[in-house]
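Pilot study result, target chain (437 residues):
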Amino acid sequence: MEQEQEIDLRALFNSLVARRFLIAGLTGFVTVLAILYALNLTPTYKVVSTFTSPSESSLTSINRLNLLIETKETKETKETKETKETKETKETIFSKFLTHLSSKDLQKIAFVEGGFLTLFNPDNSPIDDVDAFISEATSSIIIHSPNVTKKDQDLGFLTELPYSVTMEGGSAEAISEYLNTLVALANSKTIIELIKHNELKISNRLDAISLERDLLLKLAEKDRFSQIERIKEEDGKKIRQINDQIDRARYKAKENRLNQIEMLKQAANLAKSLDVIENNLNIFKDINAVNVDIVANNNLPDWYLYGEKALIERIKLLVNRKNDDPFIPELVTLKNQLNEVQNNNLLKALEMRQDDSPFITEIALLEVEKIKLRSIISDLNDVSSMQLSQISLPPKNPIKPNKRMIVLLAFIGSFMMSVFLALIMGALKPDEKAPTA
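Predicted structure:
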């Protein structure tokens, strides 16, 4: 029995050896076909980009307008319900970003505006339906939420776990560049919406500031006109008082001049009656302009000192005097006071003022608020709706097909099939040692 089995195995081995060229040829042929097939297969690459929720600095910048409004309202009244409801959080901002990222419309915009029709169609083949082509190219985009474990939930690290977006395609460079473009566009779209929302709130606040400013200017203008009227009334009263003082001084000076004329007339008549025609100034030696006052301060009567002629001349001068103002010392002070009142600098400044805003403290505060509001928009240009953990990089190896596995399976399968075929051929071949009939 053992000898028979040994003979059968030996015969089987000899049969395989005899058909070795068949086995090698068939195996080699199928393997070559498998290699050619694998080489002609279009590889499929997979790219991934990961990101987390926005940073605290971005959140603060986005909510800076709300903080500004809250600060102002806290000083005046209390935070309004609207301000509380419109305050953004990291979750709401990140949710908006993910919504845009998954939007088919945004994916199409990124595809068209980024010029990816050419990158995804390198052969420049005619495209009958562009929308269908884009839909097929972007159909593999998937957003993956974090794999949250119970431990992560207990530790509270949910916001730190990254989200990811993946995409598959035949060109590693094309899908990698497109995915980066899509993530950037979704981030930009989210920030633009937040900016527009803030711009609307800022515009409403600026309109309110303009109304407040106009109201303050109208109140200031009304107060200024009231002040002008008060000053005019006060100045009119002062002018009347000073004019009364001037009239009294002039009347007093006129009365003194008339009295002096009467006194000089009496002295002249007395000098005439005493035959004192000429002056008797010769009794003073070395009379000059310097010591005239000495003569005037003597106790000698005028009729004797000056004589009739001089007294008559003095009477003529007093009678012919048209204006006593130069001889009224206090008139200079009164006229200066009158001129000062008539040319009131404060009144002129108030009447010539064209803009009351520099004199209103509240307007200065409103202008500062306007500057702060307008600076908010420029600050949002540096914020992000997410934190990019990993950009999409072109992979070196495709995820499918596995060419080595295809060739290996073809080799093994073809080898086994050729061996099996050789065995069948050996079994069907007539036995040469069998006796003929």
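One observation from the pilot: The domain at 45-212+365-401 is CATH 3.30.1890.10 (Bacterial polysaccharide co-polymerase-like). A full batch analysis is planned for the follow-on phase.
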